[in-house]
Amino acid sequence: MIFSNLLIQWYLQNKRDLPWRNTTNPYFIWLSEIMLQQTRVAQGMPYFLSFTTAFPTVFDLAKADEEQVLKLWQGLGYYSRARNLHKTAQYIATDLEGIFPDTYNDLLKLKGVGEYTAAAIASFSYNEVVPVVDGNVFRVLSRFLDVETDIAQASAKKEFAALAFELMPKDNPAIFNQAIMEFGALQCVPKSPDCGSCVFNESCAALQKGKVDQLPVKSKKLKVRNRYFNYLVVEDENGATVIHKRVLKGIWQNLYEFPLIETEQVVGFEVIAKLVQDDFFKENKVVSIMEWNSESIIHKLSHQHLYIKFWKIKLKGVVKDGVDVVSMKTFPFPIVIHNFIEKEYI
After folding, report:
1. What does the mean pLDDT of the chain come to?
2. How confident is the model over 301-324, as pLDDT tens digits?
3. Which positions are tagged coiled coil (predicted)?
4. Does residue 290 form part of some domain?
């Protein structure tokens, strides 16, 4: 039995019941694919359900305020996805009258839609014969065919797309694409796959050669940058605090945070006290400064590790543009600050 037949047979017997698999609506498929970039299905599912409840059509998403979109996205990370999602919804609703592009090449023109997402929408919604290539596909094909190409190389995606295209049944590309991704997610997993129960255990080249744990080859190492954030959680005489929107490009753009002092390393009370006295809250006298957490909270992003400390600052008088706790909880925050507010902030 050829590769695609075995794969699809396995898929039909083992696939997970996921809501975006029960539709060909490009809006729902686009939403799910954007959410599942860099995100596990279990983590993304509640967000998909929340978004489709709040925004059942692309017009609803387009009409929403960006802060509402970011608030619903809170905790999913990679927030540029949410901002691009919102802008693309507005473009589709306004310029395209709510009609999604129906070809791979036209889908690629949408903001935030790359080759993988365009291929997924084109095949799942319109049954276009175009292969998807994600980490699961790299892994399955490199092992099954014993391909030692470094998947970190720019040319690798084109090579693996060609291999997938050759194996793909041209009369049903959608189910093949779903099947190969699901196979990589559930069976041909990165570490310690159960090759004994695999439907390809007699035909997988990597298994025959004892190379399963060596494939796929990926040489590129991500350089991680350490950053040290000190958040100033102020409280004035009315119990109000101060938050700001991060408007500069970079992490957490358009999310809210407390006033921030970024330092070159973890610093103590004396450094923070001096910086607060010299550069912050000059309209209000600082009554006290206290360390909220003695050990830094380490928040790991894909390319940055953030060492975060919160400082409690009591001020005399009333702060300008202060917000109370109830109002503050309606703003979109990075998840690490949201968790602090929910668990620690009084």
Report:
1. 94
2. 988 999 999 999 999 999 988 999
3. none
4. yes
Assess whether 164 and 28 both reside in one domain: yes
| Environment class of 280 (CB within 10 Å of its CB; exposed 0-12, middle 13-18, buried 19+) | middle
Q: Which residues constitute the domain of residue 85?
A: 3-214
Q: How far apart are CA 101 and CA 26, in angstroms?
A: 9
Residue 312 sits in a domain of what CATH number?
3.90.79.10
Number of domains in the chain: 2
Q: Is the same domain home to 236 and 196? A: no
- Per residue in 188-232, pLDDT (tens digit) is 999 999 999 999 999 999 999 999 999 999 987 778 999 999 999
List the catalytic residues. Answer: 33
Q: Is 145 within a domain?
A: yes
Decide if 220 is inside a domain: no
Identity (one letter) of the amino acid at 110? L
DSSP H helical ranges for the chain: 3-14, 26-35, 41-54, 58-63, 66-73, 80-94, 104-107, 115-126, 135-145, 156-167, 173-186, 205-208, 269-279, 325-328, 335-343
